[in-house]
Structures are given as C-alpha cells and as structure tokens.
Amino acid sequence: MFQRTGPAAYKNTLGNTLKLDEYYGHPHRKYRTIHVAGTNGKGSVSHMLASVLQAAGYKTGLYTSPHLKDFRERIKINGQMMPESAVVDWVSNFVINNDLWKIQPSFFELTVAMAFDYFADQEIDVAIMEVGLGGRLDSTNIITPDVSIITNIGLDHTNLLGDTLEKIAMEKAGIIKTGVPVVIGTTQKETAPVFNEKAQEVDTSIYFSDKEYKVAYSMLSMDGRQQLNVQKQGKDVYPQLALDLLGQYQHENIPAVLKAVDLLNEKDYKITEDRLREGMANVVTTTGLLGRWQVIGTNPLTVCDTGHNEDGIKSIVQQLENTAYKQLHFIFGTVGDKDPGKVLALLPKEARYYFVKADIVRAMNADELAKRAKEFGLVGEVYTSVKEAYKKAKRVADKTDMIFVGGSTFVVAEVL
C-alpha cells in the first residue's frame, strides 16, 4: 500500500478502479457525494463536513486515508467504522469473484471500491470522499460530486505529482468537473491561475473561500473548544462559533467548509445554522477524528499531530510558539523516501529531541535522522522504538514541560 511502501504502489491509471466500479454495479451513483482534495487540511475539512451533515440529519458516509489505529477508520457511516465482519466478507467475496475478473488492484484501489460498495449497501444519503494522493489519477476520481473542494497546495509527493506548486495544482485540479462547483480553500498566486483555467475549461464555477470567509479571532472556552468569530466579507456572520478541533491551522480550513455548506444549500441540502454549529462543535465526538493537535495527556501537556510536510510542520511550529511550557520534548520520526531537510530547518532548536524510526519499512533510520538533524542544530538521543522514546519522555518531563509527538503519521499511530 502506498503509505507503507511509497511510490512503488502508485498507479498512473484509473483502469482498475473503473473495472471494479463496473463489477460492483457503479455503487457511487446510488448516493450523493462531495469530493475533497489538497495537500494539507483535506482530512479535517472532510471530517467537519461529515459532522455537519450528520447533525443536519443525513446518513453520512466518510472515506478518508490513511488510518492511524484501525483500517476501518477509513470507511465510516455516521461516525461508526465499517464492521470487521463486513470487511472480511467483502474481501472474501472479492477473492472468489476475482478468479473470473483476474485483475490485480492495489490496496488503495480495492479499499475505495469497498467503500463505494459498502456505502451503497447501507443506503446512505451522502458520502464525503477524501482524495488519497493527487486528484487526477486518484481512485476516488470517478465520482460526479455535488461540490468539489481543494484545500491548499504544498510541496509534497513531488516525485509523483511534480516539483512545483503549479504542477501539483494541475494534478489536484483533475477533480474539477463540468457543472460541479469547486471551492478553493487557500488563494495562492502560483496555483490560482491553474484552478481558474481548469474551471473555465470544463465550464464550472469556482470560489476562493478565503476571499469570502475569515476567522477574525479565536479563544479557548472553558469546555476546551475553540470559540471563533467568523466574518464574511468583513461582517460578522458566525460569532462564537465553537470548534472542538484545537489546532490554530483549522482557521485556514473553516472558510472552505462554510463555503461548501453555502453551495450545498443551493443544491437543495437543508443545513441550518443551528445544525452547522452543532456539527462544528462536535467533530471529534461525531466522527472519531484522530491526530489533529490531539491532546493525549496533561501534566505534562502531551500532544500529537500528523502534520508531516513543510506546510504542516510550519503550522505545528506556529502552534508550539503559542503554547506555554518550560521545556519541549519532541518525539520525531519521518519517512525515508523524502528529504527531511526542509522540515528539519523549521523545527525549534531549543527542544530536546527523541529520534525514532516507526515500525515500517518506509521509515527513515533513527541514527541517520539524528545525523541530519544535527546539521540544523537539533540535539537529542536515538531510541530503538517509538514506545521506548515515549516512555522516556514521560519519565523525564516535568509537569510544566510539554511532550510533542510527530513528524510522521506512523509515529503518531504507534503512540496512539
């Protein structure tokens, strides 16, 4: 699977996906869909929309990737994971039928087909489908959604998607379809022309949500949620909007969610402001979202976050700068098929580092990571496992310190 083995698992054709779709009777045509792509933020946006739609009374499917603890996190209906028995039965049936079909789908292709078929079997109203990688050639890109969303564009998976923001944007723009309005979450001078050109080419409307909506200020409430004041073109429209996702970087994702809701209501969805507020206030409890500035301990404050590319780490460092602690203990690991230099250059030099290798083939050797980190003035020790590093950090950290776990989705997964 791509996230474990890297580029070797990437497919440059939708052939297998289209075959599977035909074999299962085009299940995605039996319910409405919303498509979400982007470099960072697409998972959070997908979960926020799922929570809002569920609060509005829709039986809501949610397909995301990767998972952290359980494969079934990828396929949920109203926040409930696909039952183990359903996964086992579906795969068994595929193996039997594939004697006739004789195709060799990738892990991701098969998982998307499973999600489409399961959602149809359960007669959902709407599914939010998160793109796995890129957009144009992603297995989810056979749907004709009610709304498409592209959150932001950063330099990630450059060996597959291109080495400039413009090239990556062209791949993401592959989800823009005729007659389907598209919401762009972040206006960037390099990518905006790409999206505008694609929208014009396929004759559809395009909206840059950050030009309409803005989080004017935020504060933490007594119940641990963010309280946000959201403006639309300079006027307060959602005062004291509660959000149970804590990262400040969520402020960049909220405009895309709100604009998407506007467009869905234009397409005969019925999402009132009360239901929108309810959904936003309960994203974690409603959908089970993990690993987004997730507080997993106090005294010392212990947080994990799956942000792993340059833009994601920038947001994490900004959040760390606004967090009070005496000493920062940073448990850090990364993958070996990407140059970590740009990420290492961003990390705080005053932290105490615990360099680790997640328990997957794709992870970078911890000794090599520590050597590279030293070039950027980052000092710490190497540990034989994520578990060992986490135990050590908890043992030595003072109550007024902070432990942060990140750098790789797989490091976070092992701690959770």
What does this protein look like?
This protein has helices spanning 2-5, 15-23, 42-55, 84-101, 107-121, 158-161, 165-172, 192-201, 250-266, 273-281, 283-287, 310-321, 341-344, 366-374, 386-396, 409-415, and strands spanning 32-37, 60-63, 75-77, 80-81, 126-130, 147-150, 182-184, 206-208, 213-220, 226-232, 235-243, 294-297, 301-304, 328-332, 352-355, 380-382, 402-406. The strands form three sheets. The chain has an eight-stranded mixed beta sheet with strand order 4-3-2-5-1-6-7-8, with helices on both faces. It has a six-stranded mixed beta sheet with strand order 12-13-17-14-15-16. Residues 1-6 have low confidence and may be disordered. 38% of the residues lie in helices and 19% in strands. With 416 residues, it is an alpha/beta fold. It folds into two domains: 2-213 and 239-287, UDP-N-acetylmuramoyl-L-alanine:D-glutamate ligase, CATH 3.40.1190; 294-415, Protein-Tyrosine Phosphatase, Chain A. It contains 16 helices and 17 strands. The radius of gyration is 21 Å and the shape is globular.
- Specify the helix fraction band: 25-40%
DSSP E strands, number: 17
Helix/strand-derived category reads alpha/beta
Largest sheet data: 8 strands, mixed
Please name the CATH topology of the largest domain: UDP-N-acetylmuramoyl-L-alanine:D-glutamate ligase
Number of helices: 16
Shape: globular
Task: Work out the radius of gyration.
Answer: 21 Å
Output the CATH homologous superfamily of the largest domain. Mur-like, catalytic domain
Strand coverage percent: 15-25%
